[in-house]
Amino acid sequence: MKNVYRQQYLKSLKLVSILFSFVLVFYSQLAPAQWTQTKGPQGGSVTALAQIGTTIYAGTAGGQIYRTSEFGNGWTKENSGLYGYQINAILPEGMLAATYGGGIYLSTDLGINWIERNNGLGNFHANTLVQSGSILLVGTDSGMYYSSDNAATWNICQSGLTSSSRINSILLSGTKVFASTSIGEIFVSDDNGVNWSWKANLQAGMQLMLSDAGVLYAAYPSGGAPIRKSEDEGLTWSVWTYTNYFPVTVLIKSGSSFIAGSSTGVQISIDNGVSWQHYLYSSETHVNAIMISGTTLYMGDYAGASVSYDNGINWTYSNVGLVATNCYALVSSAGNLFSEDYEDQGVFRSEDDGETWSMVNDGLPLSYDPWYGLLLADGNNLFISNYYNLFAWSPSSSSWLALPNTGFNFSGIAIDSPDIYVASQDYYDHYLHHSPDYGTTWNNILVADTVNYISDVVFSKNELYALTWSSFYFSPDNGNTFFSIPRPDSGQLFYKDPLSIFLSDSALYANYFNAYTSAAFRSADHGTSWNQIGKGVFTYVYDMKFSGASIFAATDSGVFLSADEGTSWISVNEGLPETDVRHLEIQETKIYATTMGQGIWQRSLQSILSIPDIAGDNFNFSIYPNPFQQATLTHYTLKGSSIISLEVYNFLGQKVKTILQNESQVAGEHQYPFSGNSEGIYFIKMIVDGKIFSKKIIQLKYP
């Protein structure tokens, strides 16, 4: 009998398990899919360090703040309330952060949440932040400000501080406070920074870096100038020492050793600056910050955060959880992801869909200037350029090979092995350059007119397009012959500067720029006729990718999708932070987006392509008549209550009318008329519960 009960019990458990699994699957399908951040590239440019108790904080160039309670066991991001501005200083006293562009932020919960503290601050570009007694001092791009109420209010320092130039450093020395400006002036204060007096003039750009036993040290962080010292409180200065002629960015003293951070690593002197020894020597190691904690040194540089337990001789990186946030480019090759990162100026590879990343920079002559930007994949081969040089990488070599120097710029590149086409975007170079053998030899296959340089080039299926300021050139035969085609705006030059061109299997897309806006155009007949797309939806288009008939656009407003050749667009930004999306990459079942300030994000491709379009189940949106002469009617049907905005833009992207602004509407049919002031092209922009749609309308001349 007991066995019968036991069998019935097991059957009931199995049934419950099946039902529970069904419910999980059902609700997971209903749950809205969204973007999620990948875990890399790991590293990132660490620009500020601080310590509270046993917790270490790291601020980055991408505007993130991370913390770790035990160095080497991973970082946790704590930046709620921060908005992507570079962190220039973290002040443990009071838990304050100085950012370049966002001013001062305060945290009352040890860095978990941050709030602005800019009341009275006249310049939000904060370069340095210190506390002297009960007074906070912040150096900005246009003078110094002080606060006596823990950053609740700020006042400009005017008494004795005669310069409104950029304050690039503030140094505490005993009971005195010293400050330097971008034009080389040195000031001193005896009352915690309220009143100041002028002391000396140094070389423009010199920064105060160290105070030791009453001696002040200053260096020029952007060149090979010597380190200077003053033994009379900044009145007179003399050359103290030369390091190894690399810019000194940080100077500290640990015991009897002077430790200098530079653009190429760490330099140490144990004989009071007579000689220097280079450690961690690398063009990738541009040191931003060094912090001493007891006998331990912590360093932040372009590659992340590291620690030294032997006074700076050996360093160990610990970047787990630390994410490089500013990414220029992303490509897919042989199942791997490759990212070119703004902060670390190098290439990273992920072999596990963005979970872990490793640097693949062997052979790249990296510098502290972010000069890379073009990363391309051609099969299993990668190419990257730094204006005058082109480098190639393959899995078999695992190292970058410098191709023969050509003497022209690499600003626009199209590759179809073994052919490479290059637009130099140089006012003095009017050629389209071509290599038939992967960059070994080069020839000029197109000469533009003497006024217009070639700004971009694309190639697909034997079709080659080159973009100039005044026109297009089209070649149907790999560049053997060319035909001139007109600009998208028919020569009216509303959008003067060409930006980029993209090519799908069925159409050509061009982006133009004018002042503070841009325009995107589409042509399905090799440039003979053009239609403007996306007006009123996004301002800048940085990249386009294509999946079947679907168009993905990376813009200043996130990622947009069009399923009707660019006529209408829908935002697909669920889960994505509000930031510029610079590059898109489609890899099998996923789409990846690189951002400026928020790293690399991923999302299921199917979750986007299955979103109902404008004519789908959510609502219907139509405009009739179109074209029209006097008036047209915007008509839509809502299936449920929604928040609606309805706006009209002209051809130049200027808003000409707001019909609805965040209005709550119930389910049912709604319609609104519109009549333009004159004939021309307009765009109706409709926002439904945060999703953006756009349609083009044409008003004809009324007889």
Structural notes for this entry:
This protein has 703 residues and is mostly beta strands. 5% of the residues lie in helices and 48% in strands. It has 2 helices and 63 strands. The strands form 16 sheets. The protein has a 4-stranded antiparallel beta sheet. A 4-stranded antiparallel beta sheet has the order 2-3-4-5, with no helix packed on it. The protein is globular, with a radius of gyration of 29 Å. Mean pLDDT is 82; it is low at 1-32 and 613-618.
Q: Mind summarizing the main beta sheet?
A: 4 strands, antiparallel
Question: Low-confidence stretches at least 5 residues in length (pLDDT < 50)?
Answer: 1-32, 613-618
Would you count the extended β strands for me? 63
Content-based structural category: mainly beta
The side-by-side strand order for the widest beta sheet comes to 1-56-55-54
Q: Helical content, roughly?
A: under 10%
User: Mean of residue pLDDT?
Assistant: 82
Report the C-alpha radius of gyration, rounded: 29 Å
- Individual helix count: 2
Topology at a glance:
Elements: H1 2-30, E1 36-37, E2 46-52, E3 55-60, E4 65-68, E5 76-77, E6 86-91, E7 96-100, E8 103-106, E9 115-116, E10 126-132, E11 135-140, E12 143-147, E13 155-156, E14 167-173, E15 176-181, E16 185-189, E17 197-201, E18 207-212, E19 215-219, E20 227-230, E21 238-241, E22 248-254, E23 257-262, E24 265-269, E25 277-279, E26 287-293, E27 296-301, E28 304-308, E29 316-317, E30 327-333, E31 336-341, E32 346-350, E33 358-359, E34 374-378, E35 381-385, E36 390-393, E37 401-402, E38 412-416, E39 419-423, E40 431-435, E41 443-447, E42 454-460, E43 463-468, E44 472-475, E45 483-485, E46 497-503, E47 508-514, E48 517-523, E49 531-533, E50 541-547, E51 550-555, E52 558-562, E53 570-571, E54 581-587, E55 590-595, E56 600-604, H2 605-609, E57 619-624, E58 632-638, E59 642-650, E60 655-665, E61 668-674, E62 680-688, E63 691-699
Antiparallel strand pairs: 1-56, 2-3, 3-4, 4-5, 6-7, 7-8, 8-9, 10-11, 11-12, 12-13, 14-15, 15-16, 16-17, 18-19, 19-20, 20-21, 22-23, 23-24, 24-25, 26-27, 27-28, 28-29, 30-31, 31-32, 32-33, 34-35, 35-36, 36-37, 38-39, 39-40, 40-41, 42-43, 43-44, 44-45, 46-47, 47-48, 48-49, 50-51, 51-52, 52-53, ...
